């Protein structure tokens, strides 16, 4: 029931992910009910999109990670109702620690938001549900 990628979460983003060389990405058209200002995606959802693409970059490689640090820079308003590409790249891997960068771009390739994350693989490499 993940909010970002859970297919069965009725209020979630339902993201799917793809790999293209060293890049990992999702394509998404944000609905209007995730807007902050009219026609502009809420900043919390922008942050969530970046966190999701960076975490799933590692999750699809069998790494169960949590976000230790997340930095987001909002460069331009991210529109609702228009196609976006959310991309990540692994910058550093050391034992259980990873650094990634991510960005959200429009169909013209213009970067609307960018972020960096430090992720930590969980002890025992497993997720326990509550």
Instruction: Give a count of the beta strands, DSSP E runs of length 2 or more.
Output: 6
Q: Helix segment count?
A: 1
How does the overall form come out from the CA principal axes?
A: globular
- Could you name the CATH topology? Thiol Ester Dehydrase, Chain A
The CATH class designation is Alpha Beta
In short:
The chain is mainly beta and 130 residues long. 13% of the residues lie in helices and 38% in strands.
Can you offer a commentary on this structure?
13% of the residues lie in helices and 38% in strands. It has 130 residues and is mainly beta. It has a single domain, classed as Hotdog Thioesterase (Thiol Ester Dehydrase, Chain A). It has a six-stranded antiparallel sheet, covered by helices on one side. The longest helix has 17 residues, at 43-59. 26% of the residues are buried. The mean pLDDT is 93.
Q: Which terms would index this structure?
A:
1 helix; six-stranded antiparallel β-sheet; 130 residues; mainly beta; globular; Thiol Ester Dehydrase, Chain A
List the helices and strands and how they pair.
Blueprint: E1 18-20, E2 23-28, H1 43-59, E3 65-74, E4 84-94, E5 97-105, E6 111-121
Antiparallel strand pairs: 1-2, 2-4, 3-6, 4-5, 5-6
